[in-house]
């Protein structure tokens, strides 16, 4: 029969069946088909990009064709499993209808990953009818592959399996999970690492191959960090500040207000401070900002019109990360509670949880190596002298103050000369200074007020010495790296015992140290310190931070009572826990640079290093008051040393008049 004799009503279904089916984008598929698992904050509701608008931008990137590898990491329960694992897997199984290989650390996890992550989403969607009714995956038990009713197959491949097992199957799509746990080859393997081996199952697809992966950030040496930051685009969401309009990246260092004596106040007072205009955000303002994100990769910038400027890195890997502040499923109070509890926890797990699970940052505490200082070594130096009391034999008292916009930190150290030569240091007190800022906007002048109050109420009141109150510090160094004008004003107003100071060294963000020749405006006062004169005629002390940090670490490692040893006032270990953690917040590392040889530099392991800075600053002040770092047989006591500048500050006593 000719088709000319068929009616339009009969022809339409025939042509519809012959027409190629339109494959939806991953965003369209997710919003039309995915129902969120019941155990989540929006359990039972349909997936909507409007919940967190940047998720739509990420899904669009999956289908743009610019990249073929996609690696993501975010906070715990922040949607990374749904975004980078569940949605891509189900999209390729049911929308495209193709085989998907899922890479897991070992096969013991395969079944739980299927039953806990994928199966609830499949059953909540209309694809429940495609679940197998017999064979592998239909009644539980161990299995390596599941075939669905549309013919697509889900195959699990373990990193711990042999090379033959991994090389026996191919597919265009691979989805990996928990990749930091599978980034080492099995000992018996003669091939490359398991992640690359599993990825190699897509080689037959050529440029059409697609790789998706998700994992919690572990360390900088972990696969997740390297794929996202080093090898990938290092893409992160940015949001417009409700006050200045500039697009900012949420950073841990600008989340403040949670340093409070109790948890309830910490949750209530926590807020984010824009790094551009220094204005604090309310929770309502953060929620509003989350609605208009942009994705910024590598060195790209956001213009005043909200458009991303510059080209993304030239790579085939889209690496994306976000933290709890960028998640609508978390409030600032939630983040504040984690920070507050972690600060008071005696173990490393709480700090690791905050760093990795809230801020999606690598945790570097495990990078400490043998021979370097540990937190336990610091806590082992708790002495017998009470807090707030200068030991009777101590002759000098120095204080260092580290400056911050919302909080300042300080430490007071007493120093005594040993009969055999050298010195011993005693931490008699330390703490933080809250800088009261108006919610209407951060004001740097508030720092000046807080410093004056601290001076009048603490420094000029003094501590107890030989049973008498009122022992004032001989020298107070105040860090001027952040707000030099304010610090200079404070020191000039406070008198000659107060001096602005500045650390120079190899730490990130610091200017390099070099000892200048003596001139009109620069005077070396130590092999590792010099004074300069500002444009206003005021004195600034510059310290070789690398040297003094090394001396501090050596001091906590040294046996109690030996030259150069440092001791903490008597208190339970829990009271000194944060101090000890900050003392080991940095470590000295070696790096080989072609043409320059092996260079030493200080690297940050944690952002909070304030008491470390305070301690090395107070120690430098003691050295400039006449305390040699090692025994000097020609010296009876610091007070008897002549006033001169030494070529080697570790061997010669130096008298400096402020």
Average the pLDDT over all residues and give the rounded result: 84
> What is the top-level CATH class of the largest domain?
Alpha Beta
Mind summarizing the main beta sheet? 9 strands, mixed
What is the terminal separation in angstroms? 110 Å
Q: Helical element count?
A: 18
Rounded to an integer in angstroms, the radius of gyration calculated over CA atoms is 31 Å
CATH topology of the largest domain: Nucleotidyltransferase, domain 5
Backbone shape: elongated
| Beta-strand segment tally | 29
Task: Give the percentage of residues in beta strands.
Answer: 15-25%
Which residues form runs of ≥5 with pLDDT under 50?
184-191, 366-371, 630-658
- Count the domains: 3
Task: Walk me through what this model shows.
Helix 4 packs across helix 5, helix 14 packs parallel to helix 15 and helix 16 crosses helix 18. The protein has 18 helices and 29 strands. The longest helix is centred in the first third of the chain and has 18 residues. It folds into 3 domains: 208 residues, P-loop containing nucleotide triphosphate hydrolases (Rossmann fold); 100 residues, no CATH class; 264 residues, Nucleotidyltransferase, domain 5, CATH 3.30.420. The chain starts with 7 loop residues before the first helix and ends in a 34-residue tail after the last helix. Strand 13 and strand 14 form a beta hairpin. It is an alpha/beta fold. The chain has a 9-stranded mixed beta sheet. The C terminus is likely disordered.
């Amino acid at each position: 029969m000719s088709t000319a004799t068929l009616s339009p009503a009969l022809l339409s279904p025939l042509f519809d069946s012959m027409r190629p089916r339109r494959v939806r984008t991953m965003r369209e598929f997710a919003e039309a088909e995915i129902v969120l698992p019941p155990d989540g904050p929006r359990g039972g509701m349909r997936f909507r990009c409007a919940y967190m608008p940047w998720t739509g931008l990420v899904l669009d990137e999956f289908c743009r064709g610019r990249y073929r590898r996609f690696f993501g990491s975010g906070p715990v329960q922040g949607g990374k499993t749904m975004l980078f694992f569940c949605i891509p897997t189900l999209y390729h199984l049911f929308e495209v209808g193709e085989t998907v290989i899922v890479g897991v650390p070992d096969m013991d996890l395969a079944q739980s990953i299927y039953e806990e992550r994928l199966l609830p989403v499949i059953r909540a969607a209309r694809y429940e009818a495609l679940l197998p009714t017999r064979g592998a995956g239909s009644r539980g038990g161990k299995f390596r592959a599941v075939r669905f009713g549309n013919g697509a197959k889900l195959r699990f491949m373990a990193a711990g399996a042999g090379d033959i097992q991994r090389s026996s199957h191919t597919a265009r799509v691979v989805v990996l999970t928990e990749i930091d746990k599978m980034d080492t080859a099995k000992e018996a393997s003669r091939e490359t690492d398991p992640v690359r081996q599993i990825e190699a199952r897509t080689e037959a697809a050529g440029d059409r191959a697609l790789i998706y992966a998700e994992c919690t950030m572990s360390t900088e040496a972990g696969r997740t960090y390297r794929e996202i930051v080093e090898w990938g685009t290092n893409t992160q969401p940015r949001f417009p500040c409700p006050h200045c309009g500039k697009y900012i990246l949420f950073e841990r260092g600008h989340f403040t207000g949670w340093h409070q004596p109790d948890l309830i106040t910490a949750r209530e007072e926590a807020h984010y401070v824009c790094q551009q205009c220094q204005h604090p955000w309310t929770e309502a303002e953060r929620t509003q900002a989350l609605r208009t994100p942009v994705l910024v990769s590598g060195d790209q910038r956001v213009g005043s019109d909200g458009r991303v400027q510059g080209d993304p890195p030239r790579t085939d890997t889209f690496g994306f990360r976000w933290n709890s502040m960028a998640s609508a499923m978390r409030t600032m109070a939630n983040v504040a509670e984690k920070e507050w509890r972690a600060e008071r926890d005696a173990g490393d797990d709480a700090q690791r949880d905050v760093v990795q699970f809230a801020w999606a940052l690598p945790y570097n505490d495990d990078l400490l190596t043998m021979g370097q200082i540990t937190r336990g070594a610091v806590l082992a130096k708790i002495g017998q002298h009470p807090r707030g009391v200068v030991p009777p034999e101590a002759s000098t008292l120095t204080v260092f103050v580290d400056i911050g916009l919302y909080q300042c930190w300080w430490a007071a150290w007493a120093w005594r000369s040993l009969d055999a030569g050298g010195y011993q240091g005693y931490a008699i007190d330390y703490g933080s200074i809250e800088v009261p800022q108006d919610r209407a906007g951060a004001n740097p002048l508030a720092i000046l007020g807080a410093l004056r109050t601290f001076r009048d109420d603490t420094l000029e009141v003094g501590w107890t010495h030989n049973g008498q109150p009122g022992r004032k510090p001989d020298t107070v160094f105040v860090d001027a790296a952040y707000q030099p004008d304010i610090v200079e004003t404070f020191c000039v107003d406070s008198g000659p015992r107060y001096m602005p100071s500045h650390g120079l060294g190899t730490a990130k963000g610091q200017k390099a140290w070099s000892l200048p020749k003596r001139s009109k405006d620069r005077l070396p006062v130590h092999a590792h310190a010099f004074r300069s004169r500002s444009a206003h005629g005021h004195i600034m002390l510059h310290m070789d931070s690398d040297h003094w940090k090394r001396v501090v670490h050596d001091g906590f490692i040294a046996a109690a009572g030996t030259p150069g040893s440092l001791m903490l006032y008597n208190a339970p270990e829990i009271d000194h826990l944060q101090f000890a953690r900050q003392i080991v917040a940095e470590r000295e590392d070696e790096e080989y640079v072609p043409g320059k040889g092996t260079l030493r530099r200080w690297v940050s392991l944690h952002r909070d290093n304030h008491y470390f800075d305070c301690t090395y600053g107070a120690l430098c002040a003691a050295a400039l008051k006449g305390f040699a770092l090692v025994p000097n047989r020609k010296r009876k006591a610091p007070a008897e040393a002549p006033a001169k500048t030494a070529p080697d500050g570790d061997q010669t006593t130096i008298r400096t008049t402020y």
